[in-house]
Amino acid sequence: MNLKKCGNGHFYDADEYPSCPKCKGQEEAPVKKEPVTGWLVCTEGGQYGQIFELKKGRNQVGGSADMDIALTGDAQVAACCQVLVTYDEEKKAFTANAGEARELSYINGQVLLFDQELHSRDVIQVGGSKLMFIPLCGPDFSWAE
After folding, report:
1. Which CATH architecture has domain 38-135?
2. What tens digit of pLDDT does each residue of 41-77 get?
């Protein structure tokens, strides 16, 4: 048996099949993932219990599927970017600021109007969803090191 893994993560016997039988030749090329810098965990709302990965730079939070953090299960979230969560690798700090949506968002119950530094376990409210912020990167750890 010649066990291989296709670009979509399926395992198959390469002695028996020339390509992945599940993908039927429609394999995706392996995608290099960017390292995770932190997470947003949905503690209330339509996507309760889901974890969203944050990357370095800007992470758009909104209600459409093309957002970095797509809260598609919450009809109260604007389709466009409602909140921007940014990890600044140079400063080793996270900030949140309002996106281009008209709807308001909140950090720990306070309206988000300007850049605000995020701290571990801060709660971001977007529409009917509450997202707890859990950092990985910061002053004590960075992927750049």
Report:
1. Sandwich (2.60)
2. 999 999 999 999 999 999 999 999 999 999 999 999 9
Domain with CATH 2.60.200.20 in the chain: 38-135
Residues ≥6 apart with Cβ < 8 Å to 42: 48, 49, 50, 51, 52, 71, 129, 130, 131
Q: 0.90 cut: is pTM over it?
A: no
Question: Could you say which DSSP state residue 125 is in?
Answer: E
Sheet holding 105-107, edge to edge: 51-54, 38-44, 129-135, 123-126, 105-107, 110-111
119-131, pLDDT tens digit by residue? 999 999 999 999 9
